[in-house]
Amino acid sequence: MKKRRLLDKALSKPAALRFTEVCRLAEAFGYRLDRVRGSHHIYESPRAARPLNFQNLHGMAKAYQVRQLLRDVEEFNLVLEE
Q1: pLDDT digits 0-9 by tens, 19-36
Q2: List of residues 6+ apart from 68 with CB closer than 8 A
Q3: Axis crossing angle, helix 19-28 with helix 63-75, rounded to the nearest 10
């Protein structure tokens, strides 16, 4: 799925995003996977002040973690990398 379509899906239905999709979306905004600790996938960005934590819940992303990504995108003025 294209990056812009993933962003639209995250904005409209954060609970419907798959775990792999939220990871791809975070990477499209400049985050990189820093470490994995158990089920916690920690993503960091040099342009964001705090890391993001994503958990795989039966193939789906947790809605509140998707909302945290969207909050940070807005707060730190991150743009999609094409």
Answers
A1: 999 999 999 999 999 999
A2: 52
A3: 10
Q: Which homologous superfamily is 3-75 in?
A: Hypothetical protein. (3.30.920.30)
Question: Looking at residue 81, what is its pLDDT?
Answer: 87
Separation CA 52–CA 10 (nearest Å):
15
d(CA 24, CA 10): 12
**Taken in order 79, 47, 15, 2, is the CA torsion positive or negative?**
positive
Give me the residues of the chain with pLDDT under 50, please: none
How far is 14 from 69, CA to CA, in rounded Å? 10
